[in-house]
Design the sequence.
């Protein structure tokens, strides 16, 4: 028998250890059968189905999808990216909440965030640009759906939910706009709120409800904060759940054209 | 016997004619009993039948009926013609097999002079005719599908990673704006809404909004927009067959785009028209980008 060099023996030990760990009880308890992270995963049609079926993503994806639907040029991944941006915004948003008080101190907190806190500036930038990007991506997603005629039967109602989701996205972005409490924030929101005041019949009430008064004050700030971090995300998640569920129930991706 | 409807009889006759290689009129006549039945079997089968002992020849009916063609035809999705054919075959087989099984043993004892006429009586009866239809109805056409893993999830993952990389890069390069602290007493000129409302703000600057010449159409617009699938009843999805809808949306998109760009780039102090390359840009969202160094 050939004597192995030290380096080879170390390599062998490492491989064996890795295998026994991957095949061990701990990993088997974490990953369900068919997971590619389990030992002995081989690429087979059966395992390809298992990857989805034994995964939490089964709530989102079916085992099989129409062939034309996976072409990048068909959806441009816009719906998925909208959802992903929402997740990114949730994560960065929760992080920002640790350093923010929706009072007169809001502006100071943002200044401190940008100067004193590690990665504060980066995370704030990600949250802000990500929000702009999400408005854009959701809008593009809607345009894609329209041009494909994907709102037609049986998907009519999902279009309605989609429009509600876009309006909620705009509201989320708009309420977040005020939170830095700088000149840009307060005057943009004042202009936006005044536009809401032009709504026929209920204009004055809408404006008063939005501002928690006649103009943008710290009371408005608190109101927008609660709407932004709790109320609107709560509502939008419910609509998103219905939206995704309906996509599958209405027969998956639309088309082909 | 129950009267069989003419069209069913016709179909049955067709099947029989096809199976036996005779004309349809002939088969029809046979089935109605107006003509003698055709001898089905070929030579060897006839021979066997000739040698067959009495029981087999005299009771052809049970032999033909035992395969129970009727219930079988009722539950199986086989077409009526096929059912008839099958019955025919089964009957043939029954005739073929039964003697074959029994023949060898009694063959020795059976006297040769016992002459059974080679007349093969009707080996089948039409008990019932089941209209051709499948048990299960196919819900939909089969679609060309691929596995979600890896064909969808992998590209999805890559695009998420690309988006993350893009966002981090963007955030590292572009600083989000932070002006002086909010001061309700100092109004900036111009005061602009967030960019996605700038098209609306631009539109509102054309008409007095209080006249409700804009807001009512806008509110109605959102309602129409939501109800669009219920208004557009054209079931076609191909762009060439829904030119009006495509035109409508493109017009809306172009209008919103132009108004937003005007609002973002071409409006300065007092909401007056400015050229961004001459007078500069009044858009604080991209403050850091505008003064990029």
Sequence:
């Amino acid at each position: 028998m050939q004597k192995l060099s030290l380096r080879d023996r170390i390599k062998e030990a490492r491989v064996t250890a890795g295998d026994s760990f991957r095949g061990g009880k701990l990993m088997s308890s974490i990953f369900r059968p068919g997971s590619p992270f389990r030992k002995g995963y081989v690429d087979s049609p059966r395992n390809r189905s298992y990857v989805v079926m034994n995964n939490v993503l089964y709530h989102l994806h079916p085992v099989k999808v129409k062939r034309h639907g996976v072409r990048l040029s068909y959806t441009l991944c816009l719906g998925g990216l909208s959802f992903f941006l929402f997740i990114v915004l949730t994560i960065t948003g929760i992080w920002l909440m640790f350093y923010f008080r929706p009072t007169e101190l809001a502006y100071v907190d943002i200044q401190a965030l940008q100067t004193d806190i590690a990665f504060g500036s980066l995370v704030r930038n990600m949250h802000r640009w990500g929000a702009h990007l999400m408005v854009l991506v959701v809008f593009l997603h809607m345009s894609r759906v329209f041009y494909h005629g994907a709102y037609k039967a049986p998907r009519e109602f999902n279009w309605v939910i989609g429009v509600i989701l876009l309006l909620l996205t705009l509201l989320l972005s708009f309420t977040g706009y005020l939170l830095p409490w700088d000149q840009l924030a307060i005057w943009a929101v004042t202009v936006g709120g005044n536009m809401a005041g032009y709504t026929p019949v209920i204009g004055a009430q809408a404006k008063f409800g939005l501002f928690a008064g006649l103009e943008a004050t710290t009371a408005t700030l608190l109101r927008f904060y609660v709407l932004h971090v709790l109320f609107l995300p709560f509502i939008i998640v419910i609509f998103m759940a219905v939206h995704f569920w309906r996509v599958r129930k209405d027969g998956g991706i639309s088309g082909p054209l | 016997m129950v009267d069989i409807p003419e069209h069913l009889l016709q179909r049955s006759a067709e099947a029989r004619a096809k199976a036996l290689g005779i004309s349809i009129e002939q088969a029809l006549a046979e089935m109605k009993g107006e003509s003698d039945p055709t001898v089905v079997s070929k030579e060897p089968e006839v021979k066997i039948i000739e040698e067959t002992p009495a029981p087999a020849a005299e009771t052809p009916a049970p032999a033909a009926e035992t395969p129970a063609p009727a219930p079988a035809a009722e539950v199986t999705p086989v077409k009526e013609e096929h059912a008839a054919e099958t019955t025919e075959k089964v009957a043939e087989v029954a005739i073929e097999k039964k003697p074959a099984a029994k023949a060898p043993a009694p063959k020795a004892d059976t006297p040769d002079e016992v002459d059974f006429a080679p007349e093969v009586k009707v080996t089948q009866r039409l008990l019932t005719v089941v209209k051709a239809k499948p048990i299960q109805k196919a819900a939909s056409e089969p679609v060309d599908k691929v596995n979600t893993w890896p064909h969808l999830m992998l590209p999805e993952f890559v695009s998420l990673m690309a988006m993350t990389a893009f966002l981090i890069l963007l955030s590292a390069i572009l600083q989000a704006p932070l002006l002086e602290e909010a001061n309700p007493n100092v109004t900036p000129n111009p005061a602009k809404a967030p960019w996605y409302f700038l098209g609306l703000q631009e539109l509102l600057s054309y008409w007095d909004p209080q006249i409700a010449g804009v807001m009512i159409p806008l509110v109605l617009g959102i309602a129409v927009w939501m109800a669009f699938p219920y208004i557009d009843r054209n079931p076609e999805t191909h762009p060439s067959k829904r030119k009006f809808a495509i035109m409508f949306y493109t017009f809306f998109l172009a209008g919103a785009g132009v108004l937003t760009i005007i609002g973002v780039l071409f409006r300065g102090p007092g909401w007056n028209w400015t050229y961004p390359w001459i007078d500069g840009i009044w858009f604080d969202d991209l403050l850091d980008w505008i003064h990029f160094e």
Notes: The mean pLDDT of chain A is 91. Residues 78-249 of chain A form a domain with the Cytochrome Bc1 Complex; Chain C fold (CATH 1.20.810.10). Strands of chain A lie at 64-66. Chain A has eleven helices and one strand.
